[in-house]
Amino acid sequence: MPLKNEFRDVVVEMLQRAATTLPKDIVDAIERSRKRERNKIATVQFDCMLKNLELARKLGVPICQDTGIPIFFVKLGSELDLGFDLVRALSDAIKRAARAVPLRQNAVDPLTGKKSNAGQPIVHIDLIRGKHLQIDILIKGAGSENWSRLYMLRPTDGQAAIKRAVLFAVAESGGKPCPPTIVGVGVGGSADVACLLAKRALLRPLGTSNRDRGLADLELRLADAANEFGIGPMGLGGRTTVLGVHVEKAACHMASLPVAINFQCWAARRASARLVDDRLVVEVP
């Protein structure tokens, strides 16, 4: 069972890793996109991204000046007694990481613009059986988050309308969410559930297939169609507008069809840790 201080230190390590390095699947996807690019300006953009990653890793500094807001997804076993306040420990870890990395203070009051931690950190907890503990972190900057969209479609509209909604969001956003992006799509549930599904979809590594064959096929069709826009890296033109599209779904009311879209920029920062033999271990993706 991890002690509070051990738990906090691991989360600090996760935040530092997420802020300064990208998972291998993201780096590999950027490198593949660079190799297939024929647009000279797009090639320069990819070279800058890869150089950025190299410097951030060597110097131990954040990849982007917008160090974002961390969003935590926690799977907590119902039989696991932590013995401390999990949310408070996460908050403490953020404060320590802000000094150690460092991370920019991005949380403000939405009306006054003054620094505020009200409602922070954002933590989504799923209770599951056993003594399992897993923590996933997404670092979301405003550039990509600002292009989140929710559409309440007619239930009779079907997949054609879902595809139109996603592609409209990609076209509308253009270069503003710092493409090439990863697009998370949530279908079904309710308005709030669809938005959460879209964000959860961003946790899945690039190159992994959706377990649902229908969704897997939809993901490929959406990615191919989005890349045909030619928006390209940083919106300056090129073959790769999205690195991937991930779709998750949940059952919904028969008279409703919620569809949510959430973007993650090319600097798709995430980290994970899980409990192994009473120790919380950071996973190296």
Description:
The strands form two sheets. The chain has a five-stranded mixed β-sheet. It folds into two domains: 112 residues, Dihydrodipicolinate Reductase, domain 2, CATH 3.30.360; 122 residues, no CATH class. The chain starts with a helix and ends with a strand. It is built from eight helices and nine strands. By secondary structure, the chain is α+β, with helices and mostly antiparallel strands.
Termini separation:
24 Å
Tally the beta strands. Answer: 9
Average predicted confidence as pLDDT: 96
Number of separate helices: 8
Q: Indicate the overall shape.
A: globular
Topology order in helix (H) and strand (E) letters: HHHEHEEHEHEHHEEEE
Number of domains: 2
Oligomer: single chain
> Which radius of gyration do the C-alpha atoms yield?
19 Å
Query: Which range does the strand content fall in?
Result: 15-25%
Low-confidence stretches: none
Which strand order do you get reading across the main beta sheet? 2-1-3-8-9
**Largest sheet properties:** 5 strands, mixed
Could you say which structural class the secondary elements and strand pairing correspond to? alpha+beta
Percent in helix: 25-40%
Short characterization:
With 285 residues, this protein is of the alpha+beta class.
Keywords for this entry:
285 residues; 9 strands; 2 domains; Dihydrodipicolinate Reductase, domain 2; globular; alpha+beta; 8 helices
